[in-house]
Amino acid sequence: MLHPQEASKTTRIMLVDDHPIVREGLAESINREADLHVCAQAEDHLEALKAMETSKPDLVVIDLMLKSSSGLELIKDVHARWPRMLILVVSMHDETLYAERVLRAGAQGYITKQEAPRDILLAIRRILGGGIYLNERTASAVLARLGNKVQGTRDGIGDVLADRELQVFELTGMGLGTREIAAQLHIDMKTVDTYRARIREKLNLKTSSELLQLAIRWNKTQ
Length: 222
Known about the structure:
This protein is an alpha/beta fold. The chain is built from twelve helices and five strands.
């Protein structure tokens, strides 16, 4: 345990994840570093905002899937309230799909939970040093997409759908039903149906079967 005087000399890190075991494991790795200290933890959107008010972290580590909302929405709220707050996303989701979105929302880095703890620490330190953290494969993919957008050659599904719609689309392509998607995203089933209707409209799809087939094909290309 750090004494107050020692803690004041360390960089303050906050963890936001709805899995206590994940938070505890990451906190243990971070607290082993002499100059880093986990100052607060939270499992959902509102709890995280309240904790940030009181703990005043230097960097926040956020998961994309939280109990009451999307991590993307939390990133946007944090960025709006504290524009200089540093944010690293650590998630189970494929970084090639969400990295660009979290950067646009206000984060400075994206890494998956499958990476080794030392890589997460590397990501934290790079962001604290003023950099952006993406692995090499993801950085190349994001730059390629940005280049295509500039040239006006890409109008992909990821560009057409809003953040929540993309999550529902991806989970549909993974074979999850309405009830499973609702549980995964912590929303009700009627909301899932609403998102699917919007997706069909935006993608000019007439039936749920067409939506499912397109989602499955699209997931395979990511």
